[in-house]
Write a structure and sequence with these properties.
mainly alpha, 2 helices, 97% helix
Length: 202
């Protein structure tokens, strides 16, 4: 009975050690997942700030070009008004002035058209550049997220393998202890039978 109690106590201690190891492994896994989650949240925040800054820059550039276009239109309008005033004062040379004004208007339209096309091309280039940058940032974040998830899965797999090995080792130890207990019980039964036989003979 003393040997049995000792073996039972060893088995209980083995279970307690395994339970403590399992608890520590679970705490470690939770801590690792929380760390990776915090890092992912920080990366998302940084990307959001970067996107906001890029969009603000694009809006500022568009507003600047819109202001330039408004100034050019205002300047052209003032020039036309001045020319029309001169035209009203010089009725005698109206045909020549009209021809000259038509030519100037054509030149002004051509200049304004080229300026508008240049501004639009600049805006398109900026938007295309920012779009490429956003796509690159998304790609980098996706790769970082994938790497982090692979690391987490690898750590979890390692811990699971370790737990399986620990369980196997404990099961083997328990089987060995039970076998020893059975051998001890058999020896004890043999001793008891011998003592009983001796008592019977005495």
């Amino acid at each position: 009975d003393g040997l049995v109690a000792g073996q039972v106590e060893k088995i209980a201690e083995g279970r307690a050690v395994l339970a403590k190891a399992l608890e520590n492994d679970i705490i470690g896994i939770k801590s690792l997942i929380e760390t990776h989650s915090a890092k992912l949240a920080e990366d998302r925040t940084q990307l959001s700030h970067s996107l906001d800054n890029d969009l603000s820059g694009i809006r500022g550039l568009i507003e600047g070009h819109s202001g330039r276009l408004a100034e050019d239109r205002s300047l052209l309008s003032q020039t036309l008004e001045a020319d029309l005033a001169k035209l009203a004062e010089s009725r005698s040379s109206i045909d020549g002035l009209v021809a000259g004004q038509v030519e100037k208007l054509a030149e002004g339209r051509d200049i304004l058209k080229r300026a508008l096309e240049s501004d639009l091309n600049t805006i398109k280039g900026v938007i295309s550049s920012q779009s490429d940058k956003l796509a690159e940032d998304r790609g980098q974040l996706s790769r970082v997220l994938e790497t982090d998830l692979q690391n987490v899965n690898s750590v979890i797999a390692d811990h699971m393998n370790k737990l399986v090995q620990d369980r196997s080792a404990l099961s083997k130890a328990l089987e060995d202890d039970l076998a020893k207990l059975a051998d001890s019980r058999s020896s004890i039964d043999g001793l008891v039978a011998g003592q009983v036989e001796k008592l019977s003979e005495g």
